[in-house]
Please model this.
Amino acid sequence: MTGQANAGRPNQLLRNLNAKIASIPMILTAVVIFLGGTVWTVVYSFTNSKLLPRLSFVGLDQYERLWAAPRWLVSIQNLAIYGVFSLIFSLVIGFLLAALMDQKIRFENTFRTIFLYPFALSFIVTGLVWQWVLNPEFGVQSVVRSLGWSSFTFDPLYNSNIVIYGILIAALWQGTGLVMCLMLAGLRGIDEDIWKAARVDGIPMWKTYLFIIIPMMRAVFITTLVIIASGIVKVYDLVVAQTSGGPGISSEVPAKYVYDYMFQAQNLGQGFAASTMMLITVAIIIVPWAYLEFGGRKRG
Amino acid sequence: MAEVVTLNNSSAKASTATKPVAGPRGKKPRPMLSPRNIMIYGALLFAAAYYLLPLYVMVVTSLKGMPEIRLGNIFSPPVEITFEPWVKAWATACTGLNCDGLSRGFWNSVRITIPSTVISIAIASVNGYALANWRFKGADLFFTILIVGAFIPYQVMIYPIVIVLREMGLYGSLTGLIIVHTIFGMPILTLLFRNYFTSLPEELFKAARVDGAGFWTIYFKIMLPMSLPIFVVAMILQVTGIWNDFLFGVVFTRPEYYPMTVQLNNIVNSVQGVKEYNVNMAATILTGAVPLIVYFVSGRLFVRGIAAGAVKG
Amino acid sequence: MKLRLLAAALAATVVLPLGIANAADLEVTHWWTSGGEAAAVAELAKAFDATGNHWVDGAIAGSGGTARPIMVSRITGGDPMGATQFNHGRQAEELVQAGLMRDLTDVATKENWKEIIKPSSLLDSCTIDGKIYCAPVNIHSWQWLWLSNAAFKTAGVDVPKNWDEFVASAPALEKAGIVPLAVGGQPWQSAGAFDVLMVAIAGKDTFNKVFGDKDEAVAAGPEIAKVFKAADDARKMSKGSNVQDWNQATNLVITGKAGGQIMGDWAQGEFQLAGQKAGTDYTCLPGLGVNEIISTGGDAFYFPLLKDAEKSKAQEVLASTLLNPKTQVAFNLKKGSLPVRGDVDLAAANDCMKKGLDILAKGNVIQGTDQLLSADSQKQKEDLFSEFFASSMTPEDAQKRFAEIIASAD
Model:
C-alpha cells in the first residue's frame, strides 16, 4: 500500500492523518447516513409506526403482512424481470453500440451525442414522453393502423401482461447511452497491439471481442454494473411517470411499495419492512462482492 | 524531473488514445459502400432513429396547437407552427394560484445545482484520492458501505435525514439541500475518482513523496492538474442528477427554494380540463435544456474523461 | 386575471431571500390544481387577502400522495407552513398527538362552530381529546353517477335513471363505440367507485357495518357478494377507458366519448368549466339513482403550531375566514362541493348541487371512508380494487380478500 511508504512513524492514529481528516465527510456519510439510516430503518420496521416513527414494537407483524400482500409479490416479480432484462440489454446494446462506434466511423461525435442525450433527461420526463409515444390512441399503434394495418396492436402500457416491458423500453432509451460511453471509453483504453496480434493470429473479430477484449475490460464492466444495478433497485420515478403502477397493480415495483406505504398509507412500519427486505437482498449480493472487489486488492 | 517526464508521457498517451483517429479497430479505411460499412452505418442509423424518435415527438408536439394534436398523429410535423406552448410553459402556466410557469424555478435550480455540484465533486475527489493513494485502516470498509449506500432507495432515507437536518438546524435551508446532494452523489463519484487516481502511474506519487510533498501538496500540485477529464465526467453526472432532482428539492427545502422540476411536476400533473400535451412537452424540453446543453458542449470530453482512466481499476 | 397578477406579485415577494417577511404572509399548502379546484382556491385566497393578510400559495400537484410527504416532512422537520390541507378524518391524527398542530378551540368557541357546522360529524373529525384542530371547508360526497346526455343520444337510448338501467344500456353504448363507464387508472378511483356501489346496492346499514364496525362476517356475506357482482359489471363496462387522472375520465364524459362516470361531486367543477349545463348536457344521479344517500367527507385545513406571534394571529384570521358564510358560498360554488354550514344561501347552485343539498337537509348521510378507515386500510383497499378492475380476478376471490382487509382494518 503506497500511502504507507512512510513507515517508522510510531503512532498508528497519526499515520496518514491528513488522509483521515480529508476522509471525514466520507466516513460520516457512510456511518451516520448510510449505516445509521439503515439501522434506524431496520429497528423501526419492527414497530407499528404510522405517520410518525414510534418505538412500539410488534415483532415480525409487518413482515408477515408484507409477504402476504399480493402487491408486494407482484412488485418483486416485476423487479426481477425488469432487472434481468435491463441488465442484459443495457450491457449488450451498450457494448454493441460502442463496438460499432469504434470502427473508425464518420460522424462519431454526432452519433455519440444522439445516443447519450436521453441521459440528460430525468426519469419523469422520460416516462412522460414514452407514455405519449406508446399511447394507443395517438402513438405508434395509431400511426401503424393509419398506414393500413388496422389490426395492429401495440399498447404495452395498457396491457397487464407486458406493461413491464413498456417500462423497459423507456428505461433502455434513457440509460444505454451512458453504458455505451463507458464501454467506448473502455475499448479506447485497450492497446492497439492486442488487436494487431489478434489479427496476425487470424482470430475472427467477434472472437477477439468475446475472449480477449471483454475480459480485459473488467473494470469498465464493474463500474457499469454498479451504475446499472443501483438504478434498477431504485427504479421508481419512471414507473410513476409512465403508468403509476398500472394497469391495476401490474407494473408495481418495490421502491414504489415502500414509498406508497410510508406516505400514502401512512404506515411507516410497513414501508420500512419492505425497504429492509430490499436492503437485505442488496447487501447479500453486494457486500461480499464489493469487499472482494474494493477491499482486498492492492493498487494497480 | 523524472515525474515530469512520466506525467507528460501519460497525459500524451491518454489524449492520443482517445482521439477518434487513433481508435485501434479495423483495417485500412475502405470504400464507403462496402457491405461492412452498410451494416455498420445501417445499425447505427437504426439505433439513432430509436433514440431520436422521442425527441422529435417532443419538439413537434410542442410546436402544435391543441386542436391539431387531437386530430393528427404524434409523428406528423406541425401544419401551423406556434410558440404559444413555449411561452405558456415558461411564463404563464398555473399551479394553484401561481401562474408564472417554469420561470419561477429556473434561478433556484441554478442556485442549487452550482454549489451542490462543486462541493460534492470537491469532497468526492479528495475521498477518491485518499482511497487510491493514502489507504488507511478501515478505509475499505467505509468505501464498501458507501457503495452499498448507492443501492438504497432515496425514499427510505427521507425521515432519517429530516431528523439529522433538524438536529443540525439546517432543515429547510439551501445548505441542508446541498449536503443531501453531496451525500447521495458521493458513492458513484468516489468510485469514479478512486478508479481514476488508481490508474495514474504510481511512480508519480512515489517521486513526490520522496521529494517530501504531503497529502494536500500532491493533491493540488500533481493530481488536480492531471484530472480535468474525470472532473468533467463528474460534473456532467452531477449537473444532470441535481438539476433533474425533484424529491430532495421539494422535501428538504421551503417553497422559495423550490427547483424548476417542482414547477415541471406541477405543470405536467395539474390537468386543467384536458391535458395540454404541447405545453407539457415544451416544459419538458425547457427543463431538460440545461443538462442537454452541458452534454452537447462537453460530450466529447465525457468519453475522453472516462477513457482517460475512470474505468481502469 | 387581476388576482393572478396579485398572486404573482406575492410570489415575487417571498422569493426575496429570507428578508423580514411581512408578518402576515401565510403560506398555505394544498393539492388543488385542477381547473375547477384552482378557481375555488382563488376564492379562499381572495377572501383571506381582503383581511389585510396575504395568502402565499403552496400548491403541489399530483394529488395527496405527492403532497402529503412534503407537508409531513416540513411539519416534523421544524419548518412548517402556515396552514395546510388534509382530507380530514384520520390523516393528521398523529401530528396532533405529537403536539405539532395548533389548537383552534378558542376560535371555534368564539365563532360558535359547534352550532353552525352541519353535519356535526365534520367537526367531530376535527376534534381530538375535546379540542378542535381543524377547520372544515366543504362537504364532498362520492355517491354520484355522471352521465353524458350526448353519448346516450348517439347510442339511441334514453338517459338512464338508475344503475340498473345504466348497466342495461351498456351494449347499446358499446355498439356506438362509446365506453360505457369511464374509470381512471389511479387506484383511489376504483376503490371509491366500489364504496359507492356498496351504498347504492347494499344500503346504508351494511355500509356502516362493514366500514364502521369492521364486521368481517358482513363483509364476507351475501349482501356484499351482490356488490361485487355489480363491481364486476362496472369492470366490464369500463374496459377501454385508458386514462389515468380522474378529470381525464370526466373529460371523456364531457366529450361524449364515455357514457358515464362514478365520481364524487368534485367532477361537477369540470362540467362547469367546460360550460356544460346540468340537465341538458349532463345528468347526475345521486346514490346512483338507487339509494339517495351521500357521504360527508371533505377537506379541512390544519394549522401547524408556529412560533411567530404575528403569523399565529393570521392563522386565526384564516380559520375564521374559511368558515365565513360568503367565503363558503363563493368557494363551494366553484368547487362543486357543499358548504359546511347549513345557514348559507346557495341560490346560485345548479340542479345537481340542489339535489345534494336536499339530501343533506333530509339527513340521508353517512360518514366518508376517509373518516371511518385509516389511511393504511384505505391503501390496501385501493390496491385490491385497482387490481380487480384491471385483471380478471373473480368477484368471489376479490370478496375474500376484501373481507380479510376489513378483518384487520383499524
